[in-house]
Amino acid sequence: MARMDPRTAAQRFADTWQHGWSRHDVDSIAALYAPDAEHISMPFRPPHRGRGAIADYIRWSFEGESDPQVSFTTPVVDGDQAAIEFRVHATDNGAPVTLAGCVFARFGPDGLAVRTRDYWHTTEGHH
């Protein structure tokens, strides 16, 4: 597989997440991850290991959410790692909610995410 510059990989990651989350397109998001990738959502949760487990987590996290308006910032890239902030305004089980956070991603030479972790917080209403 061809090598991908980490900056290109990080921008693709941010763009795909932004569009995929807006449409709840789990498959396009999951394709960003290496088959044996690891994702940690919030610091004290157990990791999701493997693309399938990550896809299951994403699918679960979209449940009850409707009309998401998603924005990801331009990634800050250092070596093979990137930090990307995000903000989402959505309706969750009928109530407006805003989610803000940051994802940290490490990319393999092929541009797929091999390890990601994120920190986020939600508040009721749109802020």
How would you briefly describe this protein structure?
It is built from 3 helices and 7 strands. It has 127 residues and is of the alpha+beta class.
What does this structure look like?
The chain has one domain: Nuclear Transport Factor 2, Chain: A, CATH 3.10.450. It is 28% helix and 46% strand. Strands 1, 2, 3, 4, 5, 6 and 7 form a seven-stranded mixed sheet that branches. With 127 residues, the chain is of the alpha+beta class. Strand 1 and strand 2 form a beta hairpin.
Number of helices: 3
CATH class: Alpha Beta
Q: How would a crystallographer describe the biggest sheet?
A: 7 strands, mixed
Q: In CATH terms, what is the fold-level topology?
A: Nuclear Transport Factor 2, Chain: A
- Helix content range of the residues, please? 25-40%
Tell me what portion of residues adopts beta-strand conformation.
over 45%
Structural class: alpha+beta
Q: Give the SSE string.
A: HHEEHEEEEE
Shape: globular
Outline the low-pLDDT stretches. Answer: none
In CATH, the architecture is: Roll
Number of domains: 1
Mean pLDDT: 94
Q: Distance N terminus to C terminus?
A: 43 Å
* Rg (C-alpha, Å): 14 Å
Strands, count: 7
